[in-house]
Design brief:
alpha/beta, Rossmann fold, Dimethylsulfoxide Reductase, domain 2, seven-stranded mixed β-sheet, 22 helices, binds iron/sulfur cluster
Length: 706
């Protein structure tokens, strides 16, 4: 690299919004990071996290070479030794204890690096274990399960058409802090404001008056974990009041009469008694959704990560179908990405409950078992016990339910290899760490989030810096490991070409490629020639041709989901010794457990204080800013409390992703910034029983003076 000034354009890979960045460099130095005004979707917007891309790149704590544990110390070793050692350990473990004795956990940073997605599956095919886990089942599993069951593909996820809607109801989501999730919406504040400026409404339903609620037309508090009662009452009301709207999809949908019969017991009064939202408010909301021509209902983390998350996400899809929002401009539409366009026959459609976890009999989804089962699969002796782990950009000791149990599980492993570039709370237990190149050292095409965006676009960005001559990209690590393990197992492995070639081939054969769209004839070269990306236009109706179910109908009433309604009806009244319900929260300067080692993102007031309603505090003889201990069935943490009516009575809120104060973590995080981990309180037994997704919201807790 010479010392000349250069300007580069690329997508920010730090969160789902994938904003376009303009990055200026001088030699190996990053001199500025700004929003790319010519990005077709983000149009110059960035959030405060974007500048941390420079911190990741320059961080002296980021590992550049493989490391091996020797006692309590870490020793740098060569790639050849690291790959060979890892392959031998994994192959020997499987030879001695069977294929399922090796487990995988993939964290969500992996979906922001396309080499993980193009090359990671090959390693899994070589390892052939049933013990696959990921952050999916701590997060959006209900979305994917519902899409698979209703539309025939787990990634057939209708995205709110935010730029063209006149009414958006948001349940359990805070896009102004997150800039969207399962809805890539860079500059959420401006886009949501625009709905109101064109005379529309944004209504937020949440146990906390979030940043999004503050900017909304209306906010309704809801008791955590009761969303399903409200949603099923809304469906019942749509039928009872004759508010079901015409839709071009109804001729392509089966099961609506089953839905009607199944929700008959869910009255507005029942919903009011459970949720705290009045029957009148729920009825009015339902009517507004049904009678506003361009309206959409959207639900996210607060709705997914709870005891009835899958039922909630199904109900949201059904409501959008009944009000005519699905596949309608201004409603919820499938995206048309340049790569991995979802239609009937697209690989990876998904499957459910083909096998179950060994200890708790939790169902797989698309080959993955629920993350809440991981610790017990490591700790419980017997055939199929996990003895060795591979983690890929994951930190389950911070991000999974019952962090204490997960910590004990990882400490007990015979062998653990982490593909990661930090020694964090989880990877500190590793025997070998294999660090991939930094994000700015490899090219990038966002396979996942271009699929979930509120506007269609495509962008392929080259690397900004050359990697060191002895560095490996993630996809090269996967190739090398797959090859070494295959050889030890006596098989062959054909190394896959670089990810840009794989994506390029996909684009050429997909909807904008020469065969299907001769006029556009999109290919890798054309994409590379457009550093700001290519605008592929607004979302448009396309569902009818893309339904992927076996019989070609949208299934409004998948049997296993309908059966789950009985579980809700029979749910016993809470008999917990704990009298408060814990929910998480998101902050714009934070993304899960990432980047808490970058001073510019964590400076200022601590953000892991417990929010509690002033009357709840007073009843317990506690004062604002007091030190309090929060206790649940599985653990306790101590932090300070903030008195605020931002949370409703009976609810306390603690953000997730903090608690880096573990011996052996080798990231420079100031002691006062390590925070407390809310997952010391969340419970691996408190789950959505239908699919095993973690219920990280609505956890029963008690708060006492510390
Ligand atoms: S919103 Fe997300 S993608 Fe956009 S700049 Fe911030 S971290 Fe990057």
């Amino acid at each position: 690299m010479t010392d000349t000034n250069k300007t580069h354009y690329r997508a920010c890979h730090l969160c789902e919004a994938i904003c376009g960045l303009e990055i200026k460099t001088r030699g190996s130095e990053i001199t500025s990071i700004k929003g790319d005004k010519l990005d077709p979707v983000s149009q110059g917007f960035i959030c405060p996290k974007a500048t941390a891309i420079a911190d990741i790149h320059t961080d002296p704590d980021r590992l550049r070479m493989p490391h091996k544990r020797v006692g309590d110390a870490w020793v740098e070793i060569s790639w050849q030794e690291a790959i060979q050692l890892t392959a031998e350990k994994l192959a020997a473990t499987q030879q001695q204890h069977g294929n399922d004795s090796v487990g995988f956990f993939a964290g969500n940073p992996g979906v922001h690096n396309y080499g993980n997605l193009t090359h990671g599956p090959a390693l899994r095919r070589i390892i052939k274990t049933r013990n696959n886990y990921s952050a999916t089942s701590l997060d959006q599993l209900p979305h994917q399960l519902t899409a698979w069951a209703m539309y025939g593909h787990q990634f057939a996820l209708p995205i709110p058409d935010v730029d063209q809607t006149d009414m958006m109801v948001i349940m359990g989501g805070n896009p102004i802090a997150s800039n969207g999730s399962i809805m890539t919406i860079p500059n959420a504040p401006k886009r949501l404001k625009a709905i109101r400026e064109r005379g529309g409404q944004v209504i937020v339903i949440d146990p906390r008056r979030t940043e999004t609620a503050d900017a909304a037309s209306q906010h309704l508090f809801i008791k955590p974990g009761t969303d399903a009662y409200v949603l099923l009452a809304m469906i019942n009301t749509l039928f009872n009041e004759g508010w079901v709207q015409d839709s071009h999809l109804h001729d392509h949908t089966k099961g609506l009469q089953t839905v009607k019969a199944s929700v008959a017991d869910f009255s507005l009064q029942l919903a009011e008694s459970k949720s705290g939202i009045t029957a009148n408010e729920i009825k009015q909301l339902t009517q507004q959704l049904a009678t506003t021509e361009r309206a959409v209902l959207y639900g996210r983390m607060g709705v997914s990560v709870q005891e009835f998350g899958a039922l909630c996400q199904w109900a949201i899809q059904v409501i959008n179908l009944l009000i005519g929002a699905t596949d309608t401009v201004g409603g919820a539409l499938l995206t048309s990405p340049a790569f991995a366009y979802v239609t009937k026959g697209t690989p990876g459609a998904g499957h459910f409950a083909r096998f179950h976890s060994r200890v708790s009999q939790l169902p797989e989804f698309s080959g993955e078992l629920p993350a809440v089962a991981l610790a017990e699969e490591i700790l419980t002796p017997g055939d199929g016990q996990i003895k060795a782990m591979v983690t890929i950009a994951g930190n389950p000791i911070i991000s999974s339910a019952n962090a204490g149990l997960m910590d004990r599980a990882f400490a007990s492993l015979d062998f653990y290899v982490a593909i990661d570039f930090y020694i964090n709370a989880t990877t500190r237990h590793a025997d070998i760490i294999l660090p991939p190149t930094s994000p700015l050292e490899h090219d990038h095409y966002d396979i996942v989030f271009l699929r979930l965006a509120v506007r269609n676009s495509a962008r392929m960005n080259p690397a900004i810096f050359d990697p060191a001559s002895d560095a490996l990209h993630d996809w090269q690590i996967f190739n090398a490991l797959s090859n070494a393990i295959a050889q030890l197992k006596g098989g062959d492995f054909n190394e896959l070409p670089a990810p840009d070639l794989l994506v390029g081939m996909g684009i050429e054969h997909d909807v904008y490629g020469a065969q299907k769209n001769p006029e556009m004839a999109l290919n890798l070269d054309k994409l590379k020639a457009e550093p700001h990306g290519i605008d592929l236009g607004p979302l448009t109706p396309s569902m009818v041709d893309r339904i992927g179910t076996d019989d070609g109908y949208i299934d409004a009433a998948p049997e296993f989901i309908i059966q789950d309604i009985a579980r809700l009806l029979q749910k016993p009244a809470p008999a917990s010794e704990h009298d408060l319900l814990l929910i998480g929260r998101r902050h714009i300067r934070s993304n899960n457990s990432w980047m808490h080692n970058y001073h510019r993102l964590v400076k200022g007031k601590p953000r892991w204080q417990l929010m509690m309603h002033p009357q709840d505090l007073a009843e317990r003889g506690l004062a604002d800013q007091a030190s309090v201990t929060i206790k649940s069935r599985v653990g306790e943490v101590t932090t300070t409390v903030i008195a605020t009516d931002e949370v409703m009575r009976g609810v306390v809120s603690l953000p997730h992703g903090w608690g880096h104060n573990k011996n052996g973590v080798k990231m420079r995080i100031a002691t006062e910034q390590k925070g407390v981990n809310c997952n010391e309180l969340t419970d691996e037994k408190f789950i959505d029983q239908l699919c095993g997704n973690a219920a990280l919201n609505g956890v029963p807790v008690t708060v006492v003076a510390a």
